[in-house]
Amino acid sequence: MLVKNRFAIDIRFLPKVIFITGNVILNIPLQLYEYFRYNKKIKNATVNRPVFILGHPRSGTTYLQNVLSKDPNFAFCATYEALTPLIFLSTGKITKKILELSMPATRPQDNMKIGADMPVEEEFAMGSISDTSLTHGYYFPKSLFNVFDESVIFGKGRRNFSDHWKKHFDYFLKKLSYKYHGKRLLLKSPANTGRMKEIYELYPDACFIHIHRDPYLVFQSNINLYEKILPVLSFQKVKNEFVEDFILYSYEKMNRKYLADLAGVPTSQVFELSYNDFVSSPLVQLEQAYKHLGLGDFSKAKPFFEEEIEIVNNYRTNAYSSLDEKTKNIVAEKWSFMFERYAYKK
User: Fold this and answer.
1) SS3 state at 200
2) Residue 319 falls within a domain, yes or no?
């Protein structure tokens, strides 16, 4: 990553770069041990009818996965597995304990609870094991547009990026399947919203749950997201205008590709819902999803869902002031197809 980005690092972040690089070097023996011990078993594993939660960042994907993950029939990518994807079979107990002691209780962008063994985006694992992950743009935000084109929508003339992503993604999912003895995987990465076609090519029996939200709120929430995470993760500083342009660009490209990919997937394998409907009547929406997708006996999973929903009942979403008319008009114009598709008011 350093070479690819020509070592373009703000000098104040140099200690962080040295620390991370040192950790990478120290982990090499563990990575080699895990590879030679488990590689053959991982390659022989089968990914059984996985379920993918799709939706642009800040559309409610995390809350949806947190609730669904309580179904004992699902396995998922835990935080410690995503952050140590090359060694979690060998050192999982140790790394989990370290993370439990060092992690905050909530996310900086929205105060949603987090934990070492809670579900998280497998996108972070892909950032460690492949060249195609949106997370690379978080570390080097000046490359965000290129990283997005290469690793999320696989733009024109980028077939090699698609193949590279599919190879490493399939290997990681097989690794999870091996660890959890073939249990059905429940996965959530907002970037996968732009990869539906590629995922369906890998797993023709996959199911997809897509959650969408008022585009105006998504825009504001993403501004807040990047304001909170870039100072923590990045090695570069970019202007607010750059981030806003990227949000406008990536939302449009990702969702246009999702809608195009949707036409190639059987309707029986896709369930769409709105954030508002899910928050107001989560059990109703989940029961419909289980019935439509054939996810199993909803009545057996329901008590686990009720317990999780009760825990987060007092959670309050971030509040935002009204968008100025100029920004509102830009969002309405560039994202008009999503307003129309899901009947949101402009």
Assistant:
1) helix
2) no
* Residue 159 is assigned to a structural domain of this protein: yes
The amino acid sitting at 31 is Q
Strands of the sheet with 270-274, listed across from one edge? 74-76, 184-188, 51-54, 207-212, 270-274
3-state secondary structure of 137: helix
Closest CA to 207 of 256, 265, 128: 265
The pTM of the full predicted model, rounded to 2 decimals, is 0.94
Are the CB atoms for 196 and 261 separated by under 8 Å? yes
Nearest CA to 342 among 273, 293, 292? 273
Half-sphere exposure of 146 (CA within 13 A, CB side): 8
DSSP state at residue 322: P
CATH number at residue 129: 3.40.50.300
pLDDT single digits (tens) 76-135: 999 999 999 999 999 989 999 988 888 877 766 666 677 899 999 999 999 999 999 999
Residue 85, domain extent = 11-314
Q: Are 47 and 70 in contact (CB under 8 A)?
A: no
Domain count, the chain: 1
What SS3 class is residue 184?
strand
